Amino acid sequence: MVPFLSFSHPHVFIDNRIAVVFNEKGLKGFNHEWTFDEMFSSTIIQEFDLNADGEFGEEEIKKVEEGAFSNLKEYEYFTDIKINGHQFKIQKVNSFYAEIDSGVMVYEFFIPCEVIAGLEKQEVIISVFDPTYFVQVMLATEDPFSFVDTLNVEFSYEVFEDEGNSYYYGQIIPEALKLKIRRKT
Amino acid sequence: MRRIAILISLLFVFDTVLAQDNPFLSKEKSSVEEKAKGKSFRYPGFTHKIMARIGKFQRSLNKNLSLLTKRIKETKSTKLLFFIMFVTFIYGVVHALGPGHGKTLTFSYFLSEETNIKKGIAVGCIIGFLHATSALFLVLLLYFTIKKAHLNNIEEMSRTIKLVSYALIAVIGLFLLAKKVYDIRKRRGFKGEEIEIQNTQSIIPFAIAVGLVPCTGSTIVLLFSLSLGVLKIGIISIIFMALGMATTISIVGILTILAKSKVKKILSEKSNGYSLFQNIVSVLGAFLIFMLGAILFLGVYAG
Predict the structure, then answer these.
(1) Which ipTM score applies to this complex?
(2) Do B97 and A138 make contact, defined as CB atoms within 8 angstroms?
(3) What is the pTM (predicted TM-score) of this model?
(4) A74 vs chain B: nearest CA distance in angstroms?
(5) How many domains does chain A have?
């Protein structure tokens, strides 16, 4: 009778790109690149591009971080990471950067998440979503993933529907990246 | 009765919160997360496929809206203006389907009150338009006074408005509850005789209390148009968004009224059931309004 009542509305849309960063020991962490929709971008740009030059300067980036990013800590940066099935708690993020690209705002930041690669395969899953659905995070349609400094690791990955992280009463299932890594022999 | 039960559970699940907090700005952590992640209730598997489509659909509506606004600014085309009216109307319809926008409250109200379809539509329209007007008022006020219409300070002001709105809702609920209980006792006084108590209750205080909270979606559209220097297009956009939201809320009202009258028709064949049902839903509806108002108020106040 009222099936249509179940639709929800996000206010903000993010296209997400994830760079998987390795080091000599194994996994180093993930670099997020969030491209916002133009409308939400404009509201933040108006507030933080104080000299209105269409760019975020160094000071302005700091203000953006304080005013429109750091609060996401409460939401664990919309990022859910599991290492071999165990929940990984995000302690901090670093290298926050914000820019304006023809009217559209882009955030970049790094989530340290170290996993030492051994001879056994290890599984890391990363899923990005806002469980309150204020924001709709989607994987970017072009090149959503990249892999950096892969010299010392062997890895494979797949994208899957992360049902364990479904939210809004199972109505929305985020797309997640499943990564398998081990030391290069 | 089963339909009613389904209706209740559906509305509750999706509309437990009247307005969401912006995770980028809000200092208070929303409790929605815990609720929404709860495993107590889950929708069947196919819904997420529909939701994924709707998500993409909204995304493209949003994109179209910003593109159209820019185009109209450049070309001043009237044809595109009509197109933007259409897009924003649909955006409003879909937008109000989500959590918030007072659907549960509207449902509870019509559960409690004896009304007709006309009133259902009126409530939808008042809530929808006030919702958008409130956003417009805030944006303009801040823009013309301190020249700083930012999402941040708008949300701060909305917090105060929310408190007022939720307090009013709780008071209205309490008032309705008292009235219903009083009516039932009065009716009991005349044994055997069915006394129709005239309902002169005005829908306006309720609709105003609910609609008062500014709509974040409209605020974002307005701020965007302001940033391009085409406030007029923004205003036209939110008028049609309001019309779309009004449509959705009206439909909720109408469905509630229809479902209730259908149940009543079935029950009227059994004399006892009718008045019992009438009493239960009217008290329940009023109680729900009070509870929701109180919960929402405390949620914002404590935050």
Answers:
(1) 0.77
(2) no
(3) 0.79
(4) 7
(5) 1
